């Protein structure tokens, strides 16, 4: 079981706490020359950063504050990550990934289009970590390389009908062999979205939630078949293998609800569909983020494809 990681925003009074985490994290790294800027931070500097445009995040595991990061906003469209820090005793729990992911979604929701950071050239493993999390080199900088990730455009989906329609629209850009990984809590609208996809793909029969059968195949009259999987009840990757999705992966469009973490083995490219529920439960609006991962989606302007379609009615 992975531990529960909770995140909160830092307030200027947290400066001493952040400084402590930053120091421990950066002192544990390999020494580099010139030393990481983080090692000369002071409480005043951290506090100043917390008051500037942007925010700080603190990560807690088992009641202990073990990680933090800072985000600055040099422009309304671009954010910079700084001081991504995890205490040496709390490494490999996914703390940094959780902090970065949630910061990215939060920034995307504010209309920020790109998240950047400076990775020192002396630390190839650190650069590799960022690459594994979707960051790519943007430009050479005096001490290393600026890496960036483009943030998804938030798509507001006010009703169940609109969610269905989003699926119908997205179906038009899909090809045989495509893999979609859907995430979002129970009731977020993953199945509703898939029903729209099914309609858009010309799938025959009514698409129902596969929760109890785990996987269903729908034949299509004119496009690729649709394989719809709900991995919610799967407890391990072996059970996922038993579904034998490889058999249809190349010819069908495969949609996996709750597939993050093991469905990636099916294809080196996939479309990450994240559906976020509103904080206010009286609001029905969902926010959807579409991110293409891998070669299939490289250079593919999903946003333009979709919104062009929206515009055309
Ligand atoms: N904006 C919206 N988008 C998607 N579903 C919505 C929305 N507003 C209300 N709903 C309702 O929420 C429920 C979503 O259920 P479902 O698609 O089965 O979710 P999941 O598969 O993520 O568990 C449906 O009953 C749907 O009618
Ligand atoms: Mg479902």
Features:
313 residues, alpha/beta, Aminopeptidase, Rossmann fold, 2 domains, 7-stranded mixed beta sheet, 29% strand, elongated, binds adenosine-5'-diphosphate, binds magnesium ion
List the helices and strands and how they pair.
Blueprint: E1 5-9, H1 15-27, H2 43-51, E2 54-61, E3 64-75, E4 78-86, H3 95-109, E5 114-120, H4 124-132, E6 136-141, E7 144-150, E8 155-157, H5 160-171, E9 179-183, H6 190-201, E10 215-218, E11 226-230, H7 237-242, H8 246-249, E12 253-257, E13 270-276, E14 286-293, H9 302-311
Parallel strand pairs: 4-5, 9-12, 9-13, 11-12
Antiparallel strand pairs: 1-2, 2-3, 3-4, 5-7, 6-7, 8-14, 10-11, 13-14
Helix pairs in contact: 1-2, 5-6
Beta strand %: 25-35%
Helix residue percentage: 25-40%
Total tally of structural domains = 2
Radius of gyration: 21 Å
Summarize the biggest pleated sheet. 7 strands, mixed
CATH superfamily of the largest domain: P-loop containing nucleotide triphosphate hydrolases
In short:
The chain is built from 9 helices and 14 strands. The protein has 313 residues and is an alpha/beta fold. Strands 1-2-3-4-5-7-6 form a 7-stranded mixed beta sheet, sandwiched between helices.
Outline the structure in words.
The model has no long low-confidence stretch (mean pLDDT 91). The strands form two sheets. The protein has a seven-stranded mixed β-sheet with strand order 1-2-3-4-5-7-6, with helices on both faces. It has a seven-stranded mixed β-sheet with strand order 8-14-13-9-12-11-10. A hairpin with a 2-residue loop joins strand 6 and strand 7. The chain is elongated, with a radius of gyration of 21 Å. The protein has two domains: 146 residues, 3-Layer(aba) Sandwich (Aminopeptidase); 157 residues, 3-Layer(aba) Sandwich (Rossmann fold), CATH 3.40.50. Helix 1 packs across helix 2. The chain is 29% helix and 29% strand. It is α/β, with parallel strands linked by helices and 313 residues long. The protein contains nine helices and 14 strands. Bound molecules: adenosine-5'-diphosphate and magnesium ion. Adenosine-5'-diphosphate (ADP) binds next to helix 5 and helix 6.
């Amino acid at each position: 079981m992975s531990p529960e990681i909770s995140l909160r925003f830092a307030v200027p009074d947290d400066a001493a706490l952040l400084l402590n985490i930053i120091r421990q994290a950066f002192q544990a790294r390999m020494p580099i020359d010139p030393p990481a800027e983080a090692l000369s931070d002071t409480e005043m500097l951290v506090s100043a950063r917390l008051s500037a445009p942007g925010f700080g995040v603190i990560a807690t595991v088992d009641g202990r504050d073990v990680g933090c990061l800072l985000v600055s906003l040099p422009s309304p469209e671009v954010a910079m990550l700084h001081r991504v820090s995890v205490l040496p005793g709390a490494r490999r729990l996914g703390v940094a990934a959780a902090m970065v992911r949630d910061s990215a979604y939060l920034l995307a929701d504010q209309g920020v289009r790109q998240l950047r950071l400076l990775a020192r050239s002396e630390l190839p493993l650190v650069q590799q970590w960022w690459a594994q999390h979707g960051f790519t080199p943007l430009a050479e900088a005096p001490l290393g390389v600026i890496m960036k990730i483009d943030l998804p455009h938030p798509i507001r989906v006010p009703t169940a009908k609109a969610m269905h329609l989003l699926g119908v629209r997205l179906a038009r850009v899909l090809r045989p062999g495509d893999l979609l990984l859907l995430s979002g809590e129970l009731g977020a609208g993953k199945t509703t979205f898939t029903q729209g996809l099914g309609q858009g793909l010309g799938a025959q029969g009514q698409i129902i939630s596969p929760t109890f059968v785990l996987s269903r195949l729908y034949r299509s009259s004119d496009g690729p078949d649709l394989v719809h999987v709900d991995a919610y009840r799967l407890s391990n990757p072996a059970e996922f293998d038993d579904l034998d999705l490889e058999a249809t992966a190349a010819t069908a469009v495969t949609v996996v609800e709750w597939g993050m973490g093991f469905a990636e083995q099916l294809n080196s490219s996939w479309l990450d569909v994240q559906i976020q529920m509103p904080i206010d439960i009286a609001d029905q609006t969902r926010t959807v983020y579409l991110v293409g991962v891998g070669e299939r989606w490289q250079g593919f302007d999903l946003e333009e494809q979709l919104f062009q379609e929206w515009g055309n009615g």
